[in-house]
């Protein structure tokens, strides 16, 4: 009999590592903290390299004496390595890691990283790889893998360790940047609220002697409407504002929401459009409360919006309609509110105002793409 033998070990190892990278990629898309990112990386290393223990260490800023291992993966014969450790006990290893160098140990009889359990006089941990993660030149994390037997680490294994570390570091950095951005948005929202409150206070003091108190009150209410639009945008990280949520926030300050009928598809608005629409809805609602449908008990207001395609372009159309109120008389003067409503959403949009005996009606049109731009 004639036969052939083929060693496919190398192919299987490569396939396992590729699979581990794919699994890690899926896991990193689901993580919400940097700790979860490094734990997912440790699990991928343990699975692909076939080691006895894998984990990660955290070096906190301001703590120059200790480091901490939150969680590790380990075999049944190994103890859990989680805990707090003194940096002074691992001075030699840390000196290498703080330079950003991968530390490869083939056989370590002496402890340089984690305490080793003694079994029959032999060290339990014999070989290990330590991959540091530096941020602005400072050691912040360290991924590690360990084996209970001596092991010659190959160049491919070292490259795989670096690749896993890079992916975990990138995911953690993205999460930290997102958290920092969220903090900045919250701080900006707080400052903006304070600024609007300061403007309102200055207006009260500066306009105290103005005899036309209605104009002063109108100015203050417009500030409140502007603040409602900004609050909504801040809750969405200044990216998008939901049209219905904005309408409810603004109109709910004018009259009970039971007096309004709001209906339309879910539409997200960019910051400019959301701010403009908030002011427009405030003007329409205020006029309805003074002169229109909301000035009587049985009056109602409907706000409908739809997305229609006209000349190959998608447009957002908003229809304001008042019913059950007194006959509406067209305004004789053009104040700020009238000019705001006539201007609508700018030169690309369109505005139609109708003052009917049954109530005021307004139709606003804006290209959907413009409405959603940031």
Shape: elongated
Secondary structure class reads alpha+beta
Total beta-strand segments = 16
Distance between the termini: 74 Å
CATH level-two architecture of the largest domain: 2-Layer Sandwich
Low-confidence stretches: none
Whole-number count of domains:
2
**CATH class categorisation of the largest domain:** Alpha Beta
Helix-strand sequence: HHEEEEHEEEEEHHEHEEHEEHEEH
Sheet with the most strands: spatial strand order: 3-1-9-8-5
Describe the structure.
The protein is of the alpha+beta class. The chain has 2 domains: 9-175, Beta-Lactamase, CATH 3.30.450; 240-372, Histidine kinase-like ATPase, C-terminal domain (Heat Shock Protein 90). Helix content is 43%, strand content 24%. The chain is built from 9 helices and 16 strands. Strand 6 (118-119) and strand 7 (122-123) form a beta hairpin. The relative contact order is 0.07.
Please summarize what this structure is.
The chain is of the alpha+beta class and 374 residues long. The protein has helices at residues 9-28, 34-49, 91-97, 155-206, 213-235, 243-251, 271-290, 336-343, 368-372, and strands spanning 53-58, 66-69, 72-74, 83-86, 103-105, 118-119, 122-123, 127-135, 138-147, 241-242, 260-264, 268-269, 300-310, 313-323, 350-356, 359-367. The longest helix has 52 residues, at 155-206.
List the helices and strands and how they pair.
Layout: H1 9-28, H2 34-49, E1 53-58, E2 66-69, E3 72-74, E4 83-86, H3 91-97, E5 103-105, E6 118-119, E7 122-123, E8 127-135, E9 138-147, H4 155-206, H5 213-235, E10 241-242, H6 243-251, E11 260-264, E12 268-269, H7 271-290, E13 300-310, E14 313-323, H8 336-343, E15 350-356, E16 359-367, H9 368-372
Parallel strand pairs: 11-13
Antiparallel strand pairs: 1-3, 1-9, 2-4, 5-8, 6-7, 8-9, 10-12, 13-14, 14-16, 15-16
Helix pairs in contact: 1-2, 1-4, 2-4, 4-5, 5-6, 5-7, 6-7, 7-8
